[in-house]
């Protein structure tokens, strides 16, 4: 009951064409294409921002670990001097 065949789809398309006309459908198609293009651009920009933010956080973690290692080595040197 929920399946739409090719014949029914063709009939619906012809009715839509008769109601709106070719100029209006062409305009709607262009608007829809622009909307999809804008959506894809926004998604790709968001992905790029996410990757950049992720890389920045990764760099911060590496710097933090390096600082911890350096502090530990300095503490060990201080400890060795006191012995």
Structure overview:
- By secondary structure, the chain is an all-alpha fold.
- It has one domain (22-83).
- The chain is built from one helix and no strands.
- The radius of gyration is 31 Å and the shape is rod-shaped.
- The mean pLDDT is 83.
Shape: rod-shaped
Structure class: mainly alpha
The stretches of 5 or more residues where confidence is low (pLDDT under 50) are none
The structural domain count equals 1
Short key terms for the protein model shown above:
single chain, 83 residues, mainly alpha
Blueprint (SSEs and pairs):
Layout: H1 6-82
Q: Concise description?
A:
By secondary structure, the chain is mainly alpha-helical.
